[in-house]
Write a structure and sequence with these properties.
Elements: H1 14-29, H2 47-68, H3 73-79, H4 84-100, H5 105-112, H6 114-134, H7 140-154, H8 157-168, H9 173-202, H10 206-209, H11 212-231, H12 241-253, H13 256-283, H14 292-307, H15 309-314, H16 322-342, H17 347-375, H18 381-388, H19 390-405, H20 411-445
Helix pairs in contact: 1-14, 2-8, 2-9, 2-11, 4-7, 4-19, 5-6, 5-18, 6-7, 6-8, 6-11, 9-14, 9-17, 13-17, 13-18, 13-19, 13-20, 14-17, 16-17, 16-20
Length: 446
Amino acid sequence: MGVVIETEVWEPSRALYIFMFICCFLSIFCLPNKSIPNVFDHAPSSSLLRFQRTFLLFYSLSSVIEGLWAVFGEYEWAYYGVSKEQMVMSLCVGYGVSLFFGSFLGMLSDLIGHKKLCLLFYMLHLFVGIWKRITADPAIWLASTCLSLASSVFSFSFETWMVVENEKLGQRKDALNDMFWLMTFFESGSFIGSQVLGNWLIDSNVNKNIASICNAAIVITVIAITYVTHGWKEAPQAASFKDYRILFYKNVICDKRIWLLSWVQACVHFSVVAFWILWAPTIVADGRDVSLGLIYPCFLGARMLGSTGFPWLFNGPLSIQMEECLVYLLIGIGLVFSIVAYDYQEIGVLVMLFILFHACMGLVSPLLAQLRSMYVPNEVRGGMISLSLVPANAISLFLLLQGGYYKRFWNSTIIVFAAFGLFSAACCMHILKKWGKQLHQNRRNL
């Protein structure tokens, strides 16, 4: 007589979802009147307010497109018969493309206009969707190349477009600050929406409905292309390549503060990459049975909650220097990664650590965006962001080859690399804080 051993699938408590929703709701709607974002005002819409609301809707659609392909990820490629070795190599190809080509797209965006680069983002997604739809055996290398380039554009082009348009419309500093955390908030919510949409389309029948993901991506992309083409008017770029090169050299290459800020951005980006590659293998280590699809929204919900802390800290009753806040946040995230890398943890502990990581990241993203507005001219903003990701893409490519393909590194080793990077980023931000104080003092003495 055989013995049947029942295994329990670990799932997060439903109370956690309710708690995050209530906290986000209270964090936004209990803000003091002077701290409520203009986007939520009920006053007659000005041109600036209309643009902000339209942009957030437009950015949310773009985030849904970006997140749709990650809903089933490896499972979708396994359905097409792609092996794990091919998946790892496709990741390497993607980061190689981002390193050698995506790093310079920001400069191209500054030169030819952000509208054209946003159109490129949609065209790449549209191509991947049509290619998967009409091909029974889509090439994973081609899809990885296109989606990596699209992700590179997504990392800088929309933010730069928003900042430039706000400047043209006579933006106020507080309104721009609100837009940064609202972008993080809506992006995280849209990623959750893409998971809900993907699961609804599949409807428990992957073999029959796997192509519906491509259909949804194609439809949303066509809507976005139509809006960008007809509803977005952009003035032609006046600066020549020679003028841009001089401006970029003066304001980026020769500015030590930008070097420090770029390293911080690279370390943060690499930590996010390391997390999304390794979080699932870390949680299901030793054959643990976990419902990963229910944990994913917890992370993004924590990121949404973290982003709502921005107006409380910098527009509300609290007053904290941004550089100082980032120092503490980066040290905290580094400690989280150190704990995960050093010791074996129960599933519940791991999930709570990862939730803490995303809550901190929800606050780090708008803080870095605001620092870019303080130190980087809008004319070279896209080039600075894309070029700052070169170290992150290079390290990601190296560790994927050594750890994922050649099996020379443990996953914990990659997490340690991310932790050390975050600690070094905290040191750079501490130095930037000192230089910022000296700059303010010199301005007062003049």
